Amino acid sequence: MSAELLLLTAPAQDVSVQPALDEYSVGDVINCSANGSPVPSVTWRQMGGPPVTGAVDGSSLTVVELMREGLNVWKCIAMNSYGSDELELRFNVTRELLDTPISHYFLTFLVELLVQKL
User: Fold this and answer.
1) pLDDT tier at 30, thresholds 50, 70, 90
2) Which of 66, 69, 83, 110 has a CA-to-CA distance to 91 between 20 and 30 Å?
3) DSSP-based three-state secondary structure for 112
């Protein structure tokens, strides 16, 4: 005779994101994971700011251009039939030097100035 013990738990308190940073670049992908039994479903929810669409794909959050506007606050939420857990992530999106229109004009000016000196 054999017996099987099945332990059912809410998502554990170890909801985590990888990589966990304060700053990301456009195109970076942030993955969220959690443990529990049954295995929890994981998703992201935006907390304020201009609505961002197309950034969430299941447990993955892709940093998009629209996220450059100020501080981003997102929650990774893990849920199963026994409960839920969440982790809040606050981050900024880095702005590349060449991405700003003023830097383009400034670099053009510098190139022209150097050409005149030669």
Assistant:
1) very high
2) 83
3) helix
Is the predicted pLDDT of residue 85 greater than 80, yes or no?
yes
Residue with tokens 């304060």: 22
The phi, psi pair for 98, rounded to 5°, reads -80, 0
Q: What domains does the chain contain, in order, with CATH numbers?
A: 16-117 (2.60.40.10)
Rounded Cα gap, residues 97 and 107, in angstroms:
10
H-type alpha helices, the chain: 101-117
Model pLDDT, residue 16: 87
pLDDT grade, residue 66 (50/70/90)? confident
For the chain, the C-alpha Rg in angstroms (whole number) is: 22
Tens of pLDDT, residue by residue over 48-61, are 877 888 899 999 99
Q: CA-CA distance, 102 to 87, in Å (whole number)?
A: 37
Spatial separation of the C-alpha atoms in residues 22 and 15, rounded to whole Å: 17
